[in-house]
Design a protein that fits this description.
The protein is mainly alpha-helical. It has 6 helices and no strands.
Length: about 190
C-alpha cells in the first residue's frame, strides 16, 4: 500500500468512522453538532483526496479500492443513525433506497469490471450531484441545528433520493446491453 497523501486522507476517513459513530452516541449536549462536524470533515477529505490524487498524479489501485469503500461505510452508517434517531418513515425509506442503491451499483460495477466494461458504469455527473445532495442532507439532519436546517436537510434528502433512483436507473440502463449479452451466453 503506497502511503500517498490521497491514501492517507482515505485512511483518515476510515479512522473517522468509529469516531463519528461514537460522537453521535456520546452523552454530551452537543453530540449532534459534533457528529455533523466529523461527517462534514470526512466528506471534505473525500473531495480533497480525489483532487490531490489527480493533481499530484498519485492515483493508486489501493486508493481506487478503499476510497469508495470508506465513503459507502460512512454514508450508510450515517443513514442508519439518522433512521434510528428520527424514527420516521420519511427518513427510513430514503435511507433504505440509498443504501440499496449503493449495494446494487457496487455489485454492478464489480460485475462490469469482471467483463472488462467498467467504463460503462463509471461515475457520472448525476452520481456526483446525488452525492453532494446526500452529503449536505446528512450533515443538516445530523446537526439538528434548528428547524430551518432540519427542513433544508429533509428537502435535500428527498432530492438526493430522487437522484439516487435516477442515477441507479441510468447505470442499470447503461449496463443493460452487457447484462442481456451475458444472459444469452448462459
Amino acid at each position: 500500500m503506497p502511503l500517498t497523501i490521497p491514501n492517507l486522507l482515505t485512511l483518515l476517513r476510515v479512522v473517522l468512522i468509529p469516531v463519528f459513530l461514537a460522537s453521535f452516541f456520546a452523552p454530551t449536549e452537543h453530540r449532534y453538532l459534533i457528529a455533523a462536524f466529523i461527517f462534514w470533515f470526512a466528506a471534505g477529505t473525500d473531495i480533497l483526496d480525489g483532487y490531490l490524487a489527480r493533481k499530484l498524479n498519485q492515483s493508486t489501485k489501493f486508493g481506487a479500492f478503499l476510497d469508495p469503500v470508506a465513503d459507502k461505510v460512512m454514508v450508510c452508517g450515517a443513514l442508519v443513525l439518522l433512521s434510528h434517531d428520527y424514527q420516521s418513515v420519511w427518513v427510513t425509506v430514503p435511507a433504505i433506497v440509498m443504501i440499496s442503491r449503493e449495494i446494487i451499483i457496487s455489485a454492478l460495477r464489480e460485475w462490469m469490471a469482471e467483463l472488462g466494461k467498467r467504463g460503462i458504469v463509471a461515475v457520472s455527473i448525476w452520481g456526483k450531484i446525488k452525492t453532494a445532495a446526500q452529503m449536505l442532507a446528512i450533515i443538516a439532519l445530523l446537526s439538528r441545528y434548528n428547524e430551518t436546517v432540519i427542513n433544508i436537510g429533509f428537502g435535500l434528502l428527498y432530492i438526493a433520493t430522487a437522484l439516487t433512483i435516477s442515477s441507479m436507473i441510468s447505470y442499470l440502463w447503461a449496463a443493460s446491453a452487457s447484462i442481456k449479452e451475458q444472459d444469452q451466453e448462459i
